[in-house]
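Researcher: I'd like a structural prediction for the single chain below. Treat it as a standalone chain; there are no partners to consider.
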Amino acid sequence: MSEKKRSLILLVDDNVRNLQLLGSLLNESYKTAIALDGVDALSFVRKRRPDLILLDVMMPKMNGFQVCEILKAEKETKEIPIIFLTGKTDSESVVKGFEIGANDYIQKPFKQKELLARVKTHISLQEAHDIQKRLISEKEKLISELQEALKEIKTLRGFIPICSFCKKIRNDDQYWEEVDVYIHKHAEVSFSHGICPDCVVKHYPEFSDKVIERLKKKKAAKGHSHSENLSSK
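Model: Treating it as a single chain, here is the predicted structure.
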């Protein structure tokens, strides 16, 4: 059995010690990548999509709020879950983080077990979301294929203009076709040609007496068999 693919977590913090600590905690179960500021984080994400971002709020060049806003505004990155790591605990900062699209908040200094539990939860949620999205995509593809297949199915419905004398049928291009030709084009059927008794008399009169006599015998034999079945019940 192949080893389960490990999720990739992008760690974004301007403090190298914090990055080292986070890496030592997460490397056993996940793959990690690091960025020292918001600009580097955006550059990384546009080259390689992580499964989760642990994002510091207070950083030079570009803070975590700005990074989050940019990622959530872009179609290719808006679904990446983001957890803020910050020492800011005032309710205004927390609310702002959620308003711009953050998925969670972890306060510094963080508790290791809490951080690991939150990371695991959001990775699992993202995996479930990706599976659901894939299933929906596959379902939509299947529906589209079925719709296309239905368009290809030959059907006969509605009114069919047919000649009262020769029994030819007028097609959509206003040409008259033999019945078997028309039906073959519009239905999934094939024809086994034979001759009915009336046409035998009309076209092969020299055989008509024999054919009619044979049909009468078959009909009589069938009627006799049917009577026996009824009497045995």
